[in-house]
Amino acid sequence: MNDLTSLRATLNDSDPAKDTAPTDRNRRWARANAIARLREDTPVTGPLWRRIPVLVTGAAAAALAVGVGAMLLPTDHPAGVPVAYASPPETVEVVGGEPVDGTEALLELAEVTAGRGDPQGRGDVGFVASTGTTMYRMNADAGDADPEETHGYGFIPFEWNRWQSLDGELREDQNPQPPTETGGEAGDHEWFLDQVGETHEETLHPSLVLPEALPTDPDALAETLMGLGEDPEEDERTDASLFHAVASLYENRPLSGAEEAAVQRIIADRSETSHLGTATDPLGREGELFSFVVEEPGVQTLEYRYLFSTEDGALLYQDSILMDEEDPETPIEDYGLEYPVLSQQVSYVWTGWVEEIGQRP
């Protein structure tokens, strides 16, 4: 019995990651990194219903789509996410014709980005404030002796605040918001807001800490991102791993113009980038929208879309769209969904440096 099977048995068939199928290689990598991130002197203080999803994420992180949440349900809510969260958010509107090859356009934008200068703010702690929506899917066990399996999903709006110091101290505040559409009984989402909201703090293993100055050469930056974690040479890390690392980089680290230009050149050089046209994000900011598709063999196919400012090349918005999954245990149709489906969308509100964790600009 492997680690994932043992965890599922412990959870009594309520495993929120049961629909995922991580490869042996990705399971070993995720497990090694999860173990590396544990602090032996840090007691687990969160209630059990909040701790279990964190354990599942550590064991099956490679199999979860970027931004796709998974959770356990309280025993008195077997139906899953409140129906008020059933409607997906509106996608960004694109102005232009058919998508065209975006390689040259993105490389030209990188030249603009490179001249932007250093991130705003001062200090040794990176702070990223963002808003957006995450799709949650779940299989619910109502807690009966032999319950009938039920399915549920929802598109949950969030506000995120993330701090990460240069020596690896990390804090994330995850604040779910009321549903954007009305529906269901009055107040039926209050328990859900309390359950999903949380603050997470940890100290990263040294192998996961980014260098103080990131390489501005795209190949060197890609090597740095692919080298995070213990014993990365034991795993054949793919472009899917690299683009997951890029998404995580934007979530946790302020980037100078030269550093972000290197990210844009990585995308242009290592993906079949499309230029979709001019678009406006949910906060009303206009930029140029680029997309590329990443196949994670044996797991899933995602389309990433990045909206960059034409003025200074800064990332304004990104979303990921789940295009397909390979042999999921529960077909997506059983959730009442179909491909393609939104996985996550994020608008970046403020990114820069502050002097200490918890400080806001």
Order of helices and strands: HHHEEHEEEEHEHHHEEEEE
Q: Radius of gyration from the CA trace?
A: 20 Å
What separation lies between the terminal Cα atoms? Answer: 49 Å
Instruction: Count structural domains.
Output: 1
Strand content: 25-35%
Number of strands: 12
Q: Give the overall silhouette.
A: globular
Per DSSP, the total helix count is 8
Structural class, from secondary structure content?
alpha+beta
Unreliable stretches:
1-79, 141-151
Q: What oligomeric state is this?
A: single chain
Average pLDDT taken over every residue = 77
* Helix proportion range: 25-40%
Taking the sheet with the most strands, its summary is: 12 strands, mixed
Characterise the protein shown here:
Residues 1-79 and 141-151 have low confidence and may be disordered. The chain has helices at residues 3-10, 24-37, 48-60, 103-114, 190-196, 218-226, 239-252, 257-270; strands at residues 93-95, 100-101, 120-121, 125-140, 150-165, 169-176, 198-203, 274-280, 286-296, 300-308, 315-325, 341-354. It has 361 residues and is of the alpha+beta class. The chain is built from eight helices and twelve strands. A hairpin with a 3-residue loop joins strand 9 (286-296) and strand 10 (300-308). It starts with a helix and ends in a 7-residue tail after the last strand. It has one domain. The relative contact order is 0.20.
